[in-house]
């Protein structure tokens, strides 16, 4: 059964104030692991000591595309020192995704990055939003990207909220990429016209169906993320944890 982790971007403002103290609260809630969105001003050695002391697994890190292109050796060095297993590209700027040719270039880059990471014992994944659900030659850009990348070097970190926001089925996409998805972003959506971010289990997404499908695939980690919260974000991630830990039992 997949483990429960938290994408720390959700708590970005709190982390700026107190990185270690916020990690301590994440551990106290019950999360088993964390996905970083950068390390703030923390030294890797200090961060490694903190996650070890708190019993948190450092699962992955979201790394900007520019750093993958220009600082990959440093990214690898830090990941290995921290004990991270996955490096994830979290976003593509609009000027890098204008047409199918741009996605072909990205696919080639991702293959290179993924191969180098694999040589160092790390895995590489791409995290989707909704903008990849634009069609070039009758095919979604996201599907083209995975078609043009090597399965052994590029995984899919599927985000169920953004798949559904784009009008597609998270369940079907988990099935489609079951052979290359080990990390799943579990999120929810308000049941109104705004379709805003919601605590997991409080919105309109079919979370039980999504998790049932995920459990039948190769997913190792459910990573909770709430891009924006209208309550204290710690309260939000605790609500999501309680729901998910309850539904798993």
TrEMBL record:
One Pfam match, given by its short name, reads AP_endonuc_2
Does the keyword field hold Protein transport?
no
Q: Which residues form the Xylose isomerase-like TIM barrel domain?
A: 23-228
Question: Isomerase: present as a keyword of the record?
Answer: yes
Per the record, the domain of life is: Bacteria
What InterPro entries does its record include?
A: IolE/XylAMocC-like, Xyl_isomerase-like_sf, Xyl_isomerase-like_TIM-brl
Alphabetized, the UniProt keywords read: Isomerase
GO molecular function annotations of the record: isomerase activity
This chain's protein is named Sugar phosphate isomerase/epimerase
Q: Which organism is it from?
A: Fodinisporobacter ferrooxydans
